[in-house]
Amino acid sequence: MVALAPLTRWLHALSWPMARAQAGRQLLALLAIALGVALAYGVQLLNDSALGEFEAAQRQITGTPDLVLAAEGGGPLSDEWPARLAALPGVQQSAPVLEASLSLLPGRQGLRLLGLDALQSAQFRPALLPQPFVDQAADAGPLAVLAPDAVYLNEAALRLLPSPRPSHISLRWTAQGQTRSASLRLAGRVASTGAPLAVMDIAGAQALLGRLGELDRVELRLAEGATAPPLSAGLKAVPAEAGRGEDLAALSRAYRVNLSVLALMALFTGAFLVFAVQSLAAAQRQPQLALLGVLGLSARERFALVLAEAALLGLLGSALGLLGGAGLAALGLQLLDGDLGSGLLGGGGQSRLHIEPLPLLIYGGLGLAVAMLGAIGPAWQARHMAPAQVLKGLGAELLPAPPVWLGPLLLLAGAGLAWLPAWGGLPLAAYLAMLCMLLGGLLCVPPLVRALGALLPGQRHAGLLLLRQRAREGAGEAAQLLAGVLVALALSVAMLVMIYSFRASLTHWLQQMLPADLYVRSTLRDAGGARAPLSENFVTAVAEGRGLPALRDWQAQRSRRLALPATVPGAAAVSISLMARPIPDENRLPLVGTLGQVPAPGLQALYINEALRDQLGLQPGARLSLPGLGPQGQALDGFVRGVWRDYSRQSGALMMPLADYRRFSGDMAVNELFLWLREGANSEQVQSRLRALAGDAQDIELAASGDLLALSLHIFDRSFAVSYWLQAIALGLGLVGVAATLSAQVLARRREFGLLRHLGFSRAQLRTLLLAETAVQTTAGALLGLGLGLAISAVLVFVVNPQSFHWSMDLALPTARLAALLAATLAATLAAALLTAWLAGRRSLGQDLLRAVREDW
Question: Which residues does the UniProt record annotate as the domain ABC3 transporter permease C-terminal (predicted)?
Fold first, then answer.
């Protein structure tokens, strides 16, 4: 154990002068650590802050009830229930709630409406207590909040208004298949943050929505120490709505973890840059360390000195990285709505940074750990050197070579780990598999360099003989030289292939799921927030082709939410999306795997998405019952005919033929229309005619297939744009590592180069030899990086994405882009080597070499 006081003196007397002399290299290592920590911590902080803001807004809306009760069948509750529940023993307070989703005109933005009893809900939700505007508060009486035409908006809803503060606002919604609209008096505001929200008295909301005597839920506050009362028939307990934050966390967790792993790529690459800088420093300081050893500095103390230098570098880099990460997160919250463009957190929020001590410690510790790991090799060299031999010029020993079998073993271990199941919904084993593959690939560099060296021409040319000998004897140094570039190149190839495969699969999926020329749906939403059905008159007019001579064919789709019973006793029901559409040919669906055969006569064929398959453990041929689908609440007995890809959601969904759905349920409503136009038809004119058919009774949304495809791919590209920057940063750090490591190797070989100068080699020939060696090593690294990248891309495509998002895809290789990436990496690496050889040659390949040889004598 080395005492702290002597170590501090050594750092001041020995390390600080060295750091000043090598300020440029030390700054590069510092930048590598700081940049890696900043990227990783910024991604974590940005997403946690946005998610925390969402959960805070949900808690403001939900309040703090002890128990939330709703109708057992999912329908409305009678408004007699609050008084009946309040009379139960142990119930201190009951508050009724009515909720609906409306559109705020003229922009038709979505607005959530809550009908509350202000007298009862004030203690549950203080953030939703109506606050009259200041200039109206003097004229408003104490019961003004109960006015049936008064509405109160939160800050997000007020920002949607066309003028700073109009006297009235216009709303539109759908109820029982009919479009309704109303004008309400804007009386004040509520303090709740989050998405646009309107609050009004519950009696006014019931009259507005045509739901007199109905409630959506009742929230209870229990007396201290009281237990939940027994539930009456027709009631069920439901979790407080703030639990949606947990659902959202699960929804975005995979995206955030995958992006964080990608951000850590830069930090991982930075570890090799730290190793290169420390190796270079150790190579330059070998005589100094040897002299200190002769003067009494023990091997353990030399080891501690090198590690202490790395620790200081890691602490400073981590501190700068944490500050930079907070700045990046703050900028991301302003520009990207807290989800880096993915859309998983909804966007549009005014999120604030939520800095917690635990992430600070974790990411700061990561930076310190990276610096320490990068210095282990040089510290080992300093500890195991023979000081007397080094002072004679004979102690420039390399790190011990790992066994040849270790690299292939790690590659095999990575291949095995890749197929382990997810843990906690995350592909942690797959991440470990990728790490094993990267480390195994690094250990395979020396054998590959030796193999390439053996392929060089065998004629007796001095330069070629030296090149072949160097490839055989110095192959161990190639792994140090190419570590950063190899890691960055492999991960860049993997991400490039994965993103290209995902984009190609998404394009094909959109073409299968959206085969028509034009799509129509309502802009309104029903009371539950789902997309409202189109009016019957409008659907009939389109079906009859009134004024639509360009219409060649059409299809309808019915979409709705459905609750499936949980497969685990005591768990909550599973809410899924049901889509009923014509399926004339099931082969046109984006199916994966085999089709299931009907297990018993009379069962309905159902098609489930991959998320529902994984959620309920269903496979083709399994039976699946859909409760409450019939007009009298009958259950539909079906079976899983096939599994289809669904890139539009991560939650469960199923599809069935529209004719079968209508025959069983009697539901003739239509949510979307798919329209095929005649060849040469003008899409704009057809859309104009459709709007005329809808008139004022229906707000419709129209989109051409080309526009939907372009919009979807634009969102996709925006979501993955940040990954390209992370790859470029990692490659840049890897190239700097090549320069730093090559400098260290040149310094360590000064006596070798001096001997070659004595034998007649010129400085230009030495530079050419050094560049040729680097070319052989870089070629080996590029080939190995390509192979590793393809292997890791297979893990990403076939393991990480299905386990994280329940999305499968087909592997597609962007050959032109891969060739361009390899060529650019080779060129940049050779350019870095050439520049380094020239700069190092000004001193290390000059006259000093002659003195270096004389020192050996």
Answer: 261-387, 728-843
- Neighbour tally for 808: CB within 10 Å: 17
Strand 623-626 to 636-644 pairing? antiparallel
- Residue 530 forms part of a structural domain: yes
- pLDDT over threshold 70, residue 139: no
- Backbone dihedral angles phi then psi of residue 83, each to the nearest 5 degrees: -70, -40
Is residue 518 in some structural domain?
no
Q: What φ, ψ does residue 834 adopt, rounded to 5°? A: -65, -45
Peptide bond into 76 cis (omega under 30): no
Q: pLDDT > 70: what percent of the chain?
A: 73
* Tokens found for residue 398: 């390399």
Q: How many whole angstroms from its chain centre is CA 263?
A: 10
Query: What is the rounded CA–CA span in Å between residue 699 and residue 172?
Result: 9
Return the number of other C-beta atoms located less than 10 Å from residue 703's C-beta: 15
SS3 95: strand
Produce one character per residue of 423-452: b if its CB has 16 or more CB atoms within 10 Å, e if not.
Answer: eeebbebbbebbbbbbbbbbbbbbebbbeb
Say whether both 195 and 228 belong to one domain.
yes
Neighbours of 729 (CB within 10 A): 20
Considering the domain boundaries, does residue 736 fall inside one? no
The partner residues of 214 in beta bridges, in order of sequence, read 78
Q: Among residues 46, 734, 676, 627, which one has the least CA distance to residue 355?
A: 46
Q: Is the dihedral of CA 283, 288, 291, 297 positive or negative?
A: negative
353 or 373, greater pLDDT: 373
CB contact set of 54 (below 8 Å; sequence gap of 6+): 194, 245, 248, 345, 346, 349
Instruction: Write the pLDDT tens digit of every residue in 250-259.
Output: 444 555 565 5
Distance CA 370, CA 271 (A): 5
Distance CA 145, CA 132 (A): 8
Tell me the residue range of the domain where 541 lies. 524-698
For residue 774, is it within any domain?
no
> Can you tell me the distance from the alpha carbon of 532 to that of 268, in angstroms, rounded to the nearest whole number?
49
Structure tokens at 461: 């040319």
Query: Packing angle between helix 445-454 and helix 763-795, nearest 10 degrees?
Result: 130
Residue burial 779-805, b: 16+ Cβ < 10 Å; e: rest: bbbbebbbbbbbbbbbbbbbbbbbbbb
Residue environment code for 513-538, b if the CB has 16+ CB neighbours within 10 A, otherwise e: bbebbbbbbbbbbbbeeebbbbbeeb
Position 571 pLDDT exceeds 90: no
Over residues 37-49, the mean pLDDT reads 72
**Residue 565 contacts by C-beta under 8 Å, 6 or more apart in sequence?**
573, 574, 627
Radius of gyration of the chain (CA): 34
Band (620; pLDDT cuts 50, 70, 90): very high
Whole-prediction pTM: 0.73
Three-class secondary structure assignment of 263-280: HHHHHHHHHHHHHHHHHH
Domain boundary among 335, 368, 400: 400
Count other Cβ atoms within 10 Å, centred on residue 161: 15
- Give the H/E segment covering residue 578: strand 574-581
* End residue of a domain, out of 239, 272, 301: 239
pLDDT at 399 over 60: no
Higher pLDDT: 842 or 295? It is 295
In this predicted structure, the answer to whether residue 28 has a pLDDT above a threshold of 80 is no
How far apart, in whole angstroms, are the C-alpha atoms of residue 646 and residue 590?
8
Tokens of 728: 């470029």
Cα separation of 778 and 735, whole Å?
A: 11
